[in-house]
Amino acid sequence: MAGAGPSGKSGKDAAWAPLALPLMLPTWAVIGFFLLLPVLLMVVYSFLTKEFRGGVIWEFSLAAYDQFFISRGLFGDEPASIEWTYIGIFWRSLWQAAVATGLCLLIGFPTAWFIATRPPASRSIWLFLVTIPYWVNLLIRTVSLKFLIRDNGPLNEFLMGIGLTSGPLPLVNTNLAVQLGLFYSYLPFMVLPIYAAVERYNFALSEAAADLYASRWRTLREITLPVVKPGIIAGCLLVFIPSLGAFLAPDLLGGAKTFMIGSLIDEQFKGSQGNWPFGAAISVILMSLVLLSLLFYARAQRSQK
Amino acid sequence: MANAIEIIEVIKRFGATTALESLSLSISDNEFFTLLGPSGCGKTTLLRMIAGFEAVSAGEIRLFGQNIANLPPDRRPVNTVFQHYALFPHMSVLDNVGFGLKMKGVDLAKRRARAGQMLEIVHLSAFADRLPAQLSGGQQQRVALARALAPEPRVLLLDEPLSALDLKLRQTMRFELKQLQKDTGITFIFVTHDQEEALTMSDRIAVMSAGRLQQVGTAREIYEAPNNRFVADFIGETNILQVEAQPISQDLTRVTLPGGSTLDLPAPPTASGQHSLSIRPERLSLDPQGSLTARLEHVVYLGTDLHLMARLADGSPLVIRMQNSARTALPNEGEEIRISIEEGAARLLAD
Ligand SMILES: Nc1ncnc2c1ncn2[C@@H]1O[C@H](COP(=O)(O)OP(=O)(O)OP(=O)(O)O)[C@@H](O)[C@H]1O
Ligand SMILES: [Mg+2]
Q1: Which helix (H) or strand (E) holds A182?
Q2: Which stretch of B91-100, B210-219, B298-307 has the lowest confidence by average pLDDT?
Q3: Pairing of strands B305-312, B317-323
Q4: Domain made up of B237-349: CATH architecture
Q5: Residue A25 lies in a domain
């Protein structure tokens, strides 16, 4: 079925109209206090001067941004040039998050499809099974994953046991380990929105496509994927954005070479070595990046129509 | 005329239930053929097997002489208008209509032209750029029709395409569909559970019930000469009387009506004993010399027609339909009336 037409304002809605503002106040208060205020605080902090041992001095400064983008050599006496260290970390983070998102999509889409095409009664059981690992704290799950893939962990012992490899595969402290960790952390965020989209998918559309001479592959590409696309996009965003800022998986499973933004920010707010304005500045840059790409995406979507 | 579709002893089972029991049927090329039957009788199942969405459990379906058992739906020159239209929600009306041509590899310019042409035929040219969700039910229905016709299938399957429309629209669409079938020369297989729809549009009708074919014939044949009680009952309105039959010659049978009078009917000599007799209400009339006696219970006013609801001596109900006219002298309710049966109107049924 095609969706229902635009819903008109019913008489009931009109009666509630004068109450709309006061009724929305609590929502606005919560969003304001827990979302806007912290973000604003971050933006303000990023323009302040750092205090040793953490904290800030209320004095305007661009030092944090300067530190991020501009290099003046080890002792600050060389001519200014672009600082590549942090941009490199950003780039690596984007890459890691993208790979993790791709992995989630690769596994999550068939999983969601499988669940959504079961008889209705058993779907909730499958969904329940998907969420079970998430009853355990993320930290513990990430540590367990490390135990599983370390040199003398079960995975390597199994691989050596069946003679597939002669020595242990060095998995811990690699990009792959971090990607696996991120994938494992966020997989349900991919499965659930795609499941919701596929469950709503009208399979008569696939039949109609086949009836009109589309092969299975073309039916998938021309009809099914475009129709469930909103679910896929929601899943990708829900995996990509937290992956980008994640610090548990890179900290526990990766090494110095797999350092990601999340860990960098985390470090700035920890202990006496921290630098709050710098941490705030990285957060602001990260947030702007995400917002900008979302805006571009929305623009592209609209101009396509 | 060549047969577009031949269905040969087809059986369809879903697990333990049998949806279709050994069904055989031939549909000619260029025919407007209707499958008519109550809900659950297997109409959609039969249509889906012709389209290729369901496999037959046994038997064979031939399309212009070729067995199509192993052809997947996308390789059958058959298109479907789905019951709930199944329009592609993310495509414009024009792209929906052009989809089949695109899949057949027709280039963009050609398929746009053809889709535009199809939209003109269904009077939707002004809506080419809309999305399906921005159309009314009747408009969506016509897009579905244009989409299925655009690739010029050899057979068009229509699964209750009018059932979601209101009465007025349904009546115009009946006429348009019939006209379209004549103009295109495509074989239409039309599914409906609405007997009026079937009678007004079809070249031939197959009446189905509980997975079995009951009767195949033109509207007139099915209405005037129903094979059995189910068909007589399902098509139009009819009076069913329990009668005693007695063969009196090679092809004449004498039936004793409730009340004692007799009637000689052409019927095979096998018809003997208790039987059902079907008489259409419009073939009965008030007549002081009539052979049936009944008590008038009440009169239903239907505008152009009147229905006299009466009861025979044995307690069975009888409906008499008459034209509404100022000159008609109506008996009073509760009065005894005499009714005559038009020559050739009574039909002995196999149960
Ligand atoms: N996929 C299926 N699995 C099991 N039983 C089915 C399936 N499809 C149809 N049936 C059964 O087969 C019978 C015929 O169904 P079908 O849909 O062909 O009926 P129909 O004549 O089209 O009815 P309607 O007018 O309500 O659409 C029904 O008893 C139905 O329950
Ligand atoms: Mg049906």
Answers
A1: helix A175-200
A2: B298-307
A3: antiparallel
A4: Beta Barrel (2.40)
A5: no
CB A286 within 8 A of CB A261: yes
Q: Please state the ipTM of this predicted complex.
A: 0.81
Q: List the structure tokens of B23.
A: 């069904």
| Distance in angstroms (rounded) separating the CA atoms of residues A24 and A44 | 28
Chain A contact present for B88, CB below 8 A:
yes
Express each pLDDT in B63-90 by its tens digit: 999 999 889 999 999 999 998 899 999 9
Q: How far is the CA of A98 from the centre of ligand 2 (A)?
A: 46
Q: Please report, for the domain that includes residue A195, its CATH number.
A: 1.10.3720.10
Q: For chain B, where do the domains classified as CATH 2.40.50.140 start and end?
A: 237-349
Indicate which atom in ligand 1 lies nearest the CA of residue B47: 18
In chain B, which residues have their Cβ closer than 8 Å to the Cβ of A213? 74-75, 100, 103-104, 151
Cβ neighbours of residue B8 closer than 8 Å, sequence gap 6 or more: B24, B59, B60, B61, B62
pLDDT in tens, B152-183: 999 999 999 888 788 888 888 888 899 989 99
Query: In total, how many domains does chain A have?
Result: 1
For the beta carbon of residue A186, count every other beta carbon within 10 angstroms: 26
Residue range B1-74+157-162+196-234 in CATH 3.30.70.260: no
List B276's β-bridge partners, or say none.
B242, B349
Interface of A with B (CB under 8 A): 1-5, 202, 204-205, 207-215, 218, 222-223, 226-227
